[in-house]
TrEMBL record:
This is MerR family transcriptional regulator. Gene3D superfamilies: 1.10.1660.10, Cobalamin-binding domain, Methionine synthase domain. InterPro entries: Cbl-bd_cap, Cobalamin-bd, Cobalamin-bd_sf, DNA-bd_dom_put_sf, MerR-type_HTH_dom, MerR_fam, Meth_synthase_dom. The keyword Transcription applies. Residues 175-303 form the B12-binding domain. Keywords: DNA-binding, Repressor, Transcription, Transcription regulation. PROSITE patterns: B12_BINDING (PS51332), HTH_MERR_2 (PS50937).
Amino acid sequence: MGHFSISDLEQLSGIKAHTIRIWEQRYGILRPVRTATNIRTYCDDDLRRLLNVATLYNRGQRISQIARLSEHELAKAVISCDEDANNCCQQVNGLLAAMLRMDEPQLSCLMNRAVCNMGFEGAILHVAYPFLQRIGVMWQAGNVNPAHEHLVTNLLRQKIMAGIDNLPPVQPADVKRWVLFLPEGEMHELALLFMNYVLRVRGHHVLYLGQNLPISELKTINETYQPDALCTVMTAVPERDRVQEFIDELHQICPERTLVLYGSLVQQENVRLPFNAIKVRLMTDFIALVEEMASSPGNYTLEAAKT
């Protein structure tokens, strides 16, 4: 069972801590356990209930009416209501509640609905990414187990791959060529998969090499495929003190190609970029870069992106 503070609930549900306390006192919405020092702690059931309450409350229902619902009635009301296409917070809450129930069909249904309402790219940027960020908060607090993470990761991976598969093929002649790969030992693939989609939907040609690629393989790939750019994501690999070494080696192997670097490890302040490398902080920055590269002849570097 998870152990959440009231500030955790505020972050995860979007409901202010002050409001949560009022709902507890007036309506008995939640029943936290208090520690020996009188600090409220909440369990998984409390979070699930609050997410469901927040969904109905954000749709305009009175909290006094919601408080009268049984657990079964509350869950049924949330599942049966039509999602507001413009309320991303509400959709993220629904996904979190479904994840905590390990309800894969509902997770899939909610993501499909978001794609239908917002388009594939919009659903990933405005629903899936905030959802993953909320999971990250829960992971740091020790309130998400590996089964939760695997359920969500595999579901989103399937959705992105299906989105890519539905795109028309792109011929490599007269378009930008990209190589996408993860460093050896790196298995966090969702961001790279979405980059694959972003590039292909904009008419770029992609050689997608996926997870766990030894950097030594890039020399032959570079000579054979002759890409305009190579892109990699560094989330857990390499070790923090070896990131600079990896970037320098990548530059030595591909000195004449644009290198696009993404991921938390690249954001370290002491990382020095070679002249042909671009550090991308946000996925929206990557999208803007791709669109600018599409309209630029020849090889491309963006000095502003290095600052």
